[in-house]
Design goal:
- About 35% of the residues lie in helices and about 25% in strands.
- By secondary structure, it is α/β, with parallel strands linked by helices.
- The strands form 2 sheets. The chain has a 7-stranded mixed beta sheet, with helices on both faces. A 4-stranded antiparallel beta sheet has the order 2-1-4-5, with helices on one face.
- It starts with a strand and ends in a 12-residue tail after the last strand.
């Protein structure tokens, strides 16, 4: 059975005297597709940077799990891949070359490519074949030899996702990846995420370990519910006054619930989850009536409690 892959324990962060995050606790299981939503300024990007390791938290811990062994995250690592809204592709490389680039950097050094020519040519061929296969999964087989300026924004974003997935990260982090795209392109990419979850389910049914764990930050609630199997709401609008505080100590998780499961071919029937959307709006985004954070947050069973690391 798939176990935890990432855990946040009492995570707190801020800038100067300004608190941003307060006692954020979250455990992500291998094979989950989790959507993270929250009001503007609640610290979603700060939370992602803490997970990536570029901005370690002031308080608490970020733990990555390798089997039953947790390791504290305090710097970037290849087991955490990230794709931003503004993709970063090399304009002078084709789509295929961009996707293969990470493999080259990870598996070779400059001296290998200079002085072991025959070995490098063979490995380069393998990298390019893997890149082509990954782009085909992203439905970009016709764009293998195109350069970024020759592709649409949606195509470039798919290349960026392929670039991250080919490195086989333990968890893929997506920071508003579809925000700048038109609705039709956005839907195509949403269905790619549904395809990753379907692959996970197929692997688990065969007794294999699911390959894809994803945390996607999005401001669009319909999208969050549609693409995920679990939705987490981060908010600064919670009843901190009832906890004896004179000011908000930072945003915390106020919502953590399962979402409906859709297949890549299902219609986007937003009406089918309207009640959950209204629930999320009230609990996460409502500014007039501050909510109890524990009301919609799933408790972690005692047998799943993790190491005291």
């Amino acid at each position: 059975m798939a176990g935890p892959i990432l855990e946040l324990k009492d995570l707190g962060h801020g800038f100067g005297d300004h608190p941003v995050l307060h006692q954020v606790n979250l455990k992500i299981q291998r094979g989950e597709i989790i959507a993270l939503v929250g009001p503007s300024g609640c610290g979603k990007s700060t939370l992602l940077r803490a997970i990536v390791g570029t901005h370690p938290p002031r308080e608490g811990k970020v733990l990555m799990w390798d089997g039953d062994r947790p390791c504290i995250v305090d710097s970037p690592g290849r087991e955490r891949g990230i794709v931003y809204q503004r993709y970063s592709l090399f304009p002078h490389l084709t789509a295929q070359e961009n996707v293969a680039y990470g493999l080259m950097v990870d598996e070779t050094e400059t001296r290998d490519r200079l002085f072991r020519r025959a070995w490098w040519r063979n490995l380069r061929k393998q990298h390019m074949e893997q890149a082509a296969e990954m782009l085909e999964r992203m439905k970009l087989e016709e764009a293998l030899h195109k350069y970024p300026p020759e592709m649409s924004g949606g195509m470039c974003q798919r290349v960026a996702i392929a670039q991250a997935l080919i490195m086989k990260p333990s968890i893929l982090l997506l920071d508003e990846p579809f925000g700048a795209l038109d609705e039709a392109t956005r839907e195509e990419l949403q269905r790619i995420l549904l395809g990753l979850y379907a692959e996970n389910e197929k692997a688990k049914a065969a007794g294999e370990e699911p390959a894809h764990t994803v945390l996607i930050v999005t401001h669009e609630i319909n999208e969050a519910i549609f693409v995920s199997n679990r939705l987490v709401g981060l908010s600064q609008y919670w009843n901190w006054q009832e906890r004896g505080r004179s000011s908000c100590p930072g945003a915390t998780i106020v919502y953590d619930q399962a979402t409906p499961i859709f297949s890549p071919d299902d219609d986007r029937d937003f009406l089918s989850f309207r009640d959950q959307k209204d629930e999320i709006l009230k609990q996460v985004f409502h500014t007039n009536q501050l909510q109890d954070p524990s009301l919609y947050v799933q408790a972690v069973p005692e047998e799943e409690e993790t190491s005291s690391l």
